[in-house]
Amino acid sequence: MKDIVYEIIGSILIIREQTDESKLTEFSNRMMQKYPSISTVTLQTSKVGGFERTRKLEHFMGNKTFETVYKEYGNSYLVDISTSFFSPRLSFERQRIAKLVTKGEKILNFFSGVGPFSIAIATNCNDCIVYSIELNTNAYQYLVRNIELNKCVGRVEAYLGDAFNVVPKLFNNKMDRILLPLPLEAEKSLPIAYKALKNGKGNIHWQITEKTSNKEINNQTFENRVDEILNRSQISSNFQIESSRLIRWLAPRVAHRAIDLVFN
Ligand SMILES: C[S@@+](CC[C@H](N)C(=O)[O-])C[C@H]1O[C@@H](n2cnc3c(N)ncnc32)[C@H](O)[C@@H]1O
User: Residue 156 contacts by C-beta under 8 Å, 6 or more apart in sequence?
Assistant: First the structure.
């Protein structure tokens, strides 16, 4: 039997395909036998969407909960997957960024979710601080709990609000490194992030989408795109693309890219 499209987050199996109930039951039983840690099966009935990047889920089998703990590189993330974004597929990207951070850095995460990037950084760097903003109240509440759960109090600070309001009010000209993990707002967030860099210098981890079927990256295209965006906001800056990579395919011709920008 052809396997059904699915995802596992902690103890929850998410079936991402509509099919008849007997196939779903057979598949769920098979998966629960294969992975004894699965205690809930849910059906995903919408795509991930909106600025909060959430999806509609329906309970199908097992424990009636959408809350779970996802463990990664010694950290634990508590999340309600029906109200907050979470993706195990960003695990490598979180570790990659965490390893780039150096002693004493001040870091700003515009779009924190339940905290996996911020906490991955803080648990890799004892004397850094990660200011972490989140708009979705549910995700923010889990962010606060995850900061405590992972003993990051004082190293990750949570702010409930819209990053486009919070950043200019609190963080202009203060940060060494900035994370922009929301491709939907890639263009709008870049000039605001630039203004939050201390003396216009530092690193911005810019996540974007690109319509392409090509895995290879042409950095010149992105340099031009950054130039255009910053010029529109009357920002003149010196920057290089330090590295760029494909995070994942969001659709057959939509690449989710990580672009590391260094301003000097
Ligand atoms: C793609 S998710 C990434 C979350 C997190 N970085 C992660 O990897 O799990 C983007 C997050 O940004 C939040 N968000 C969207 N617009 C925002 C805004 N203007 N200000 C602050 N947070 C926002 C969403 O609610 C969502 O939790």
Answer: 115, 118, 119, 122, 129, 130, 132, 147
Q: Ligand 1 atom 19: the closest Cα is on which residue?
A: 162
What are the CA-CA distances from residue 137 to residues 159, 199, 219, 225 (Å)?
A: 10, 32, 36, 33
Q: Is 93 found in the same domain as 49?
A: no
Full residue range of the structural domain in which residue 182 is found? 88-263
Tell me how far the alpha carbon of residue 219 lies from the centroid of ligand 1, in angstroms.
26
pLDDT digits (tens, 9 = 90+) for 157-203: 999 999 999 999 999 999 999 999 999 999 999 999 999 999 999 99
CA distance 94 to 32: 28
Domain total in the chain = 2
Q: Are residues 151 and 40 in the same domain?
A: no
- Reduced to 3 states (helix: H, G, I; strand: E, B; else coil), residue 119 is helix
Global pTM? 0.96
Minimum-distance ligand 1 atom for the alpha carbon of 110: 21
Out of 134, 159, 182, 247, mutate this one to test ligand 1's pocket (max ligand atoms within 8 Å of CB): namely: 182
